[in-house]
Description:
This protein is an all-alpha fold. It has helices at 11-33, 39-61, 64-71, 74-99, 103-124, 131-151, 156-172, 179-204, 213-238, 242-248, 251-262, 270-293.
Amino acid sequence: MAHSSQDQDTLAGFAYALTAYVLWGFLPLFMKLIAHIPPVEVVAHRVIWSAPLAAGLLLITGRTADLKAALKSPNTLMMGVVTAILIAVNWSIYVWAIASDRTLDASLGYYINPLFSIFLASVLLRERLSRAQIIALSFAGIAVLILTVDAGKLPVAALGLTLSWGFYAYFKKSLPVGPNQGFMLEVLILLPLAIGYVIYLSYQGDSHFLTTPGNTLLLLGCGVVTAVPLMFYANGAKLLRLSTIAMMQYIAPTMIFIIAVFVFNEPFGSAKMVAFPLIWLSLVVYSLSVFRSR
Length: 294
């Protein structure tokens, strides 16, 4: 996720960010409605129908100059390709997790994400870890180990979401354009592949688009549920302090967790009863370290 350079919080920034996180929190309910559609097809439509919304925002705000410059820069385009691939992978894993009754894994993945960002900064940027950060990472590692031993395999969906979003956020910082322009760049890079895949599905007779009014409306809605929260977040992050964003990012995975357990009735066995509190404890330790650093 993008970081804020604000020294003070604003009410508008809080409203924007809260709206984004709440929309992301409710996203599993929408994704469950399209669980009968293959994840790759859903992601293709997320790309296609995000394009007009993202382009419209840039036109309204008059921020197209940066996008034009990015399209003419080979280095920016290459970095855009990297972030576009990572966000597409993240979307695909997320859609698959919800459709496969692994919503709890999705929640876990986004809970772990800020801790993974700390780990990345330590490994790739040689940032020194504080004692609190080491403790937080240790708790998270123990939680993942417990889930792995219990299931007999790694929590692939959770780790896949953590890795893809963590590296996406890391490389996103290198894009020399604003968040809205960067999102539009990623959509433009993925758009030919998405359109080509949808055309291929139609030719094979496997497309769900235009088959029934329900399927068509749901696939059209993919653009709204993809682009709108990202745009709200991008504007909110500019108007909030980093420590505020660090706390607010737990809203979405907490809502996802509640939906998984109480709406989707996913099993919450003894291993998860130990692992999730460990993750929550690690996030408390991490959050306290963020506030102390302020």
